[in-house]
Amino acid sequence: MDTPDAAPASSSSSSSSSPISGAQSYALTDAQRAELITKAEAGDAEAAFRLSLYYTFTSSDDVQRIRWLTIAAKAGHVVAQHNLAYDLYMSGKDLAEAAHWAAESSKSGNAEAGDLLKEIEAARAKARGSRP
User: Fold this and answer.
1) Most CB within 10 Å of its CB: which of 60, 61, 128, 132?
2) What separation in angstroms does the CA of 119 have from each of 19, 49, 126?
3) CB 66 within 8 A of CB 85
4) Would you say residue 121 has pLDDT above 70?
5) Residue 13's Cα: distance from chain center in Å?
6) How far apart (Å, rounded) are the C-alpha atoms in residues 123 and 129?
7) What are the C-alpha distances in Å from 63 to residues 56, 122, 123, 127?
């Protein structure tokens, strides 16, 4: 039988071209995390957002994820604003706060946040309507 030709062409290349998992792509060393924390606490929205991704995909720490996502959102990170709005909406914890962050993200040009805001406002109206 012939040798199978289904092996990837890159199998003999360096490990840097090897596929990595999603969690690995968000992994941070202790030094990288410390550097990002310093930057985020100084107002760097991208650093705070990067930390939120680390705590979402690598560490699975919801408290830290929300902490850094909130810091990034407050610093004007459009995707963080959208993600925070979505998280608040889906958890049902605070629809008013979810609407606030969806509106902020939408104001910055995020069309998806505008759609999310409509969903949140509909949920808020439904919640108000169901009250005695």
Assistant:
1) 61
2) 37, 24, 11
3) no
4) yes
5) 33
6) 10
7) 10, 28, 25, 26
